[in-house]
């Protein structure tokens, strides 16, 4: 069972960077601008669903749709499907948005495929904006992680968990099975009570890492160069923009681009 089938139960306990905050939502709306038309949402993030008037949310995890999606209306629908299987309608959406969506596929090749599909689905002059989890130029080392876990925390546990994931991706390639996050965490910090005392993180938040136990899911944590290498043709105005000042925001830029006027695919 993938951890996504249990993830909805923990949704209320998540905070940035794992869940969009006001800074994230404001930046996505700024990048998309004053559009008129349907928006494709990669996932069912309720904060993003509520940010636009016409939304089609697509998620392959039925449990997330059932428990996190704010509900279908005349203008907003959720579709149970894999993003990589979306066939159309092409040249249709005024915008495509997501939060961490490009990291939720399993390989850099699938990141490329997803971006190509996004480009096909966007209408000419349509806009894309998605927050990324980007591996930093200066890697998170084991020494850094151990030091972070031995003193009063300066970031929340979810941000620290992503530092572990990016540390693993740096050493083993961008693609990283999520079970390794938990395994590496347990190797580094076998005494969770001590970790809670040293850092101030609550034990119930620390134990949320166990959601990854046995999950077959694989995440991808590309570097900036790797993201640039998989961008599709037919786009322009590509930019990576900072977004907010929450914990680990320096590794969570927005990727935005426009579909070219002549690039009907």
What does this molecule look like?
The protein is of the alpha/beta class and about 260 residues long. It folds into 2 domains: about 5-135 and about 220-260, 3-Layer(aba) Sandwich (Rossmann fold), CATH 3.40.50; about 140-220. It has 11 helices and 9 strands. The strands form 2 sheets. A 7-stranded mixed sheet has the order 3-2-1-4-5-9-8. A two-stranded antiparallel ribbon has the order 6-7. Helix 7 packs across helix 8 (about 180-190). The longest helix is centred in the middle third of the chain and has 16 residues, at about 155-170. It is globular. It starts with a helix and ends in a 6-residue tail after the last strand. The model has no long low-confidence stretch (mean pLDDT about 95).
What's the helix and strand layout?
Blueprint: H1 4-7, H2 22-32, E1 39-42, H3 46-49, E2 55-59, H4 62-67, E3 76-80, E4 93-99, H5 108-121, E5 122-131, H6 142-148, H7 157-172, E6 175-177, H8 179-188, H9 192-199, H10 203-206, E7 218-220, H11 224-229, E8 235-241, E9 254-259
Brief rundown of the structure:
By secondary structure, the protein is α/β, with parallel strands linked by helices.
Q: In CATH, what is the homologous superfamily of the largest domain?
A: Vaccinia Virus protein VP39
Name the helicity range: 25-40%
Gyration radius over CA:
18 Å
Number of domains: 2
Question: What tags apply to this protein structure?
Answer:
seven-stranded mixed beta sheet, two-stranded antiparallel ribbon, 34% helix, globular
